Amino acid sequence: MIPLIERAFQFPSRTAVVDRGNKFNYQDLLERSAAIAQSLLGEQKDLNQQRVAFIVNPSYDYLAVQWGIWRAGGIAVPLCTSYPFPSLQYVIEDTQASFLIVAPEFEETLSPYQKSQTLTYLSTRDLQNYPTGALPDINPNRGAMILYTSGTTSLPKGVLSTHQTISAQIKSLVEAWNWSEKDHILSILPLHHVHGIINVNSCALWSGATVEFLPQFDPAKVFEIFCQGEVNVFMAVPTIYFKLIAFYETLPSSKQEEIQNALKKFRFMVSGSAALPVSVMEKWKSISGHTLLERYGMTEIGMAISNPYDGERRPGHIGQPLPGVSVRLCDENGKEVPAGTAGEIQVKGETVFSEYWGKPEATAKAFTPDGWFKTGDIAIVEEGYYRILGRDSVDIIKSGGYKISALEIEEKIRAHEAVKDCGVVGIPDEEWGEKVVAALVADPNVDISELKNWLRAQLPSYKIPKEFLFLDELPRNALGKVTKNELKKRFNS
Ligand code: MLC
Ligand code: AMP
Question: Could you tell me if 406 and 397 are in contact, meaning their C-beta atoms sit under 8 angstroms apart?
Fold first, then answer.
């Protein structure tokens, strides 16, 4: 049995989801997901870990499809709703998906798959009202989900987790952050990443709590929902807090007061997926009365380190290892560093993923011989609190909570006819954390807006560089490698 779904049988009549004013209880979710599972199964008894890619906006339907795939025995592959066709195609083909489930608003983008010979294309409209029957018994050790993450290779990698991994990730957070059925969380994050899928939706549903959807981030709507007084838990990336603060500052004082009063009643609020600037933490505290709880995680490991729920939440620090997660800091030779010294965060425990999908070499490289996952993040422990110092690779950029590979963008830009060479880096930015920028060795007459539009057809818009700089040549070291730290300085000067 799938632990998350098994728990839902305990609270059938509680409200599981609020979606555009409609309420759905756990019984509704169980029945709808069972019907979807049946329609996926058809004559089969068990999908036996076939991959089912799906593109559905954050909603009740999204959850019903995700649970339906799981209950049919499939591996769920949530697709990013803002990807252009080539990026979607990469994920669908890399996972060798057997099914593709498409919500009406994405049918045009995915129309090339409608008559596919290699997969079964289903509109969410085809998944209505299927009669329910017996569903397969799923061993929690089986694969459950593949999420794509960018890394130090140019192409994103699929991170495979089992139901057991997902349950361990949820249980750790439910315990650490005191989740209960009284909670009501606003779900605004994209649902192809762990932050939205695990920390927000799955922890709430595990606890018999309520998930309220707002499919697209919009500060005015977020505050409007907060002021209705039902939501009591909120989780977001630092950029979202930055944008909420910026919007709040434009409001008249009467509205600000109303928001302040609503926020004071929250149980707690979390920031993660990127470093929370102390200035944002302080401003949010002055508005809401809450000290944001900052925690650290990664697609491959779920959440690993968190500031305490009770106790001091220390600005600029990520806290201590979560329940069930072992953490150590190591040097380049894989030796644990002495106390007070910086080292790479390595993680072990049931919360750690199984493998990079179809990439055994990348999987082997990601672990030490004794089974610790190497995060690539460098940290130090100060008075019992971990603090992130940086990453071991300059080619990984975190912008607005999204992980972006500089190499992937460079490869695309280099394919443009007017470009001889390019270097992509992330530079510090108040709003985005890091901002993607590109240096071009190119025909100086190249039209940047044309170049951006050309890139937009191939990459999601958040990966498109926000600034371009023309250089005669890229800075390189004696071995001919582009010196990215030197390149970053050119953007600051
Ligand atoms: C949007 N834009 C971005 C961007 N998001 N640019 C850089 N970085 C981003 N993250 C750009 C768009 O390309 C567009 O540009 C313009 O901003 C408006 O787009 P939008 O979609 O309307 O923006 P908005 O809704 O304001 O989105 C901002 C955001 C979003 C912060 C809400 O980026 C977001 O939801 N981020 C969260 C990502 C996340 O969940 N990460 C968790 C990963 S898991 P143009 O040029 O087209 O106008 C993980 C593990 C862990 O990290 O620890 O949690
Ligand atoms: P992702 O691969 O998208 O899951 O992103 C994981 C990465 O986000 C981590 O390896 C960190 O670099 C970064 N990250 C997550 N939480 C934090 C945090 N609180 N502070 C700094 N970096 C973070």
Answer: yes
Low-confidence ranges of the chain (pLDDT < 50): none
Query: Token pair 């009643």 is at which residue?
Result: 265
Domain residue limits, the chain: 3-138, 194-390, 394-492
**CA-CA distance, 338 to 11, in Å (whole number)?**
48
- Ligand 2 pocket test target in 313, 345, 403, 434 with most atoms within 8 Å of CB: 403
3-138 in CATH: which number?
A: 3.40.50.980
Can you tell me whether residue 202 is helix, strand or coil? helix
Top-tier CATH class for 394-492: alpha beta
pTM attached to this predicted model: 0.97
Chain segment 166-202, per-residue pLDDT in tens: 999 999 999 999 999 999 999 999 999 999 999 999 9
pLDDT, one tens digit per residue, over 402-426 is 999 999 999 999 999 999 999 999 9
| Cα 291 to Cα 310: distance, rounded to the nearest angstrom | 11
Identity of residue 412: K
* 149 CA: nearest ligand 2 atom: 2
275 lines ligand 2 (CB under 6 A): yes
Note the ligand closest to the C-alpha atom of 157.
2
Fold match between domain 194-390 and domain 394-492: no
- Domain at 194-390: CATH code: 3.40.50.12780
